[in-house]
Design brief:
By secondary structure, the protein is of the alpha/beta class. Helix content is 31%, strand content 17%. The protein contains eleven helices and ten strands. Pfam families: N6_N4_Mtase.
Length: 332
């Protein structure tokens, strides 16, 4: 499998073509399983209400469809957290296999099911290292005034009784970033692992420079990153490029390989490339894949070559990928 390449493929299947113990870090914004869209609905129980939308939802770019409430509409709905964990476990073992011992994994996870991701990764052998926090500069949200519900019912007593009270969540100003590590050899030392695999430590200089620029507490696990216009341009859940660059630089060295199995609009890949790291990405949605290709082409100012591949090859599913011309590519 080529380095410096993004594949229009399902990573759950395609990752099996990557050699064991060959990747230095995985950084990925995985689906949160909160019914944001079809690609984010990762449970088996659906009904007529799922996917509907209110007039207010139709007017916004945020959550245009109705998901399921936390307590569900039925007993079957309450299996959603377990089904999400099972989905994560369907690929977390492969992530473990391809990583070098001591490698770090950064996963953006929704607050609702982050604990399920942690359990799934621990079941696959990973060590849960920390939960970082990305603090956003803005975060739209909806929290309905419950008094309005009673007003529509003509219930003046309860309307007045519950004035000033809301339902739903507080403004989601932070987003969890789960930090996992593939353990190094039992009986070995971290220093020995660094010599063998060149992973397992974190880059103090990268973090110190970042915090000094933003007046943050040194070595803090909270990152405040502003979302720019460019960061909203390509994908509805796109993460800031500066944040992705910090994560890449925090746990990898130049020329090492960063993998993003859910590449989306390629923010992780672009960050890796700008920091002189190699990358591999997968994005199964053809429309989003094309956006990722165009973004890399425009930003890196490099010619790209589309590789025609044999669809009859059992190792290749969709036969679409691109790599950077002139980059030092090789197979894994």
């Amino acid at each position: 499998m080529m380095k410096d390449c993004i594949y229009n493929d399902d990573s759950i299947i395609a990752i099996k073509n990557i050699k064991s113990n060959s990747i230095h870090s995985i950084i990925s914004d995985i689906p949160y399983g909160i019914d944001y869209d079809d690609w984010d609905t990762l449970h088996s129980n659906t009904n007529s209400a799922l996917g509907g939308s209110s007039i207010a939802q139709q007017k916004t770019s945020l959550f245009k469809r109705r998901g399921k409430p936390l307590n569900g509409w039925s007993e079957a709905d309450k299996r959603r957290p377990q089904e999400y964990q099972e989905w994560v476990e369907s690929w977390s073992n492969e992530w473990y296999r391809v990583l070098k011992s001591g490698s770090s994994v950064f996963i953006f996870a929704g607050r609702q099911f982050a604990h399920r991701v942690i359990v799934a990764f621990e079941n696959s052998g990973f060590t849960f290292k920390d939960m970082l926090s990305w603090e956003r500069d803005k975060a739209p949200h909806r929290a309905q005034r419950i008094s309005c519900v009673f007003e529509k019912r003509g219930d003046t007593f309860n309307q007045q009784k519950w004035a000033g009270w809301r339902v739903a969540n507080l403004r989601p100003i932070f987003e969890p970033i789960l930090w996992f590590q593939k353990p190094y050899k039992t009986g070995g030392t971290l220093a020995d692992n660094l010599i063998e695999n060149e992973v397992g430590a974190w880059n103090e200089n990268a973090l110190t420079s970042w915090n000094i620029q933003r007046g943050a507490l040194n070595h803090s696990n909270m990152f405040k990153v502003q979302v720019t216009t460019e960061d909203r341009k390509y994908h509805i859940t796109q993460k800031p490029l500066n944040l992705m660059k910090l994560l890449v630089e925090l746990v990898t060295k130049e020329k090492q390989i960063v993998l993003d199995p859910f590449a989306g609009s390629a923010s992780t890949l672009l960050a890796a490339r700008e920091l002189n790291r190699h990358f591999i990405g997968f994005e199964k949605n053809k429309e989003i894949y094309d956006i990722a290709v165009k973004r890399l082409e425009n930003t890196l100012d490099n010619k790209l070559v589309h590789q025609k591949r044999d669809n009859n090859d059992p190792k290749i599913r969709n036969g679409r990928s691109f790599r950077l011309i002139g980059s030092r590519t090789s197979t894994l």
